[in-house]
Write a structure and sequence with these properties.
Elements lengths: L2 E3 L5 H12 L2 E4 L12 E2 L1 E4 L2 H16 L2 H7 L1 E4 L3 E6 L3 E5 L4 E2 L5 E2 L2 E6 L7 E2 L2 E5 L2 E5 L6 E5 L3 E4 L2 E3 L1 E11 L4 H21 L3 H17 L3
Antiparallel strand pairs: 1-14, 2-4, 3-7, 4-6, 5-17, 6-17, 7-15, 8-9, 10-14, 10-17, 11-16, 12-13, 12-15
Helix pairs in contact: 4-5
Length: 223
């Protein structure tokens, strides 16, 4: 399941985050690439001091955690510290799958990947996030402040940026619900009960859907 989140960040918040990022510096993305990723990774990676990194993590993790669409799609158990990537002058990141286990201080499973767009899509040419999703090619180039959440198992790439600069913040989520198909069932049930509540109020149908949602989450949650 691929979920896009419109307006995760306001224009003012995007500006503040970019200002924070500009106070740090960028290094060659290959410095943090694994042995096979080095063959396809050509971008720049942000390096801030610990205070800057903490500010970035705090700001973006709160934005995600307070977004209902994100939480109902992911059931986040752990959100990795954020990375900022910038591509320009032909920079790209070829086809790859994200690492299954991530982290320095504590290792966590990557169930979901999240990209938060920080550049106006009109300010750069190319740079589409391309996914091979069950044999179907999908491309995403979202507005600044929008986010996309997708299974970390997905083969994906960032197309070359021909003009301008593409800046994004990235993180990976370990979910309380490990199985992607189970997360999708829970997401659909949650959407259904919200629709019932909005259209009919707290009805018997709402209560039964909520009961099923809670009992399935109770059964599937990996605590």
């Amino acid at each position: 399941m691929i979920i896009t989140v419109d307006s995760l960040l306001t224009t003012e918040q995007v500006s503040a985050i970019n200002k924070l990022i500009d106070s740090g510096h960028f290094e060659d993305g290959q410095n943090t690439a694994g042995w096979h990723a080095k063959t396809v990774k050509q971008n720049r990676q942000w390096q801030g001091n610990q205070e800057q990194q903490d500010q970035l993590d705090h700001f973006l993790s709160i934005a995600l955690s307070q977004n209902t669409k994100f939480t109902t799609a992911s059931y986040p158990k752990y959100i990795q510290p954020f990375m900022v990537s910038e591509s320009q002058d032909g920079g790209h990141y070829g086809m790859h799958t994200d690492d299954a286990l991530m982290g320095k201080e504590g290792i966590a499973r990557s169930d979901l990947s999240c990209t938060i767009f920080l550049s106006d899509p009109k300010s750069y040419q190319g740079g589409e996030l391309h996914m091979d999703y069950f044999g179907q090619g999908l491309e995403f180039k979202l507005a600044a402040g929008d986010a996309i959440i997708y299974p970390s198992t997905t083969l994906h790439e960032v197309k070359p940026v021909i003009n301008g600069a593409r800046r994004v913040a990235l993180t990976w989520i370990e979910s309380y619900v490990r199985d992607a198909s189970q997360r999708e069932i829970l997401y659909d049930l949650d959407c259904a009960r919200r629709d019932v509540m909005q259209q009919q109020g707290k009805t018997e149908a709402f209560d039964k859907i909520t009961k099923s949602h809670a009992n399935l989450l109770r059964q599937w949650a990996d605590t």
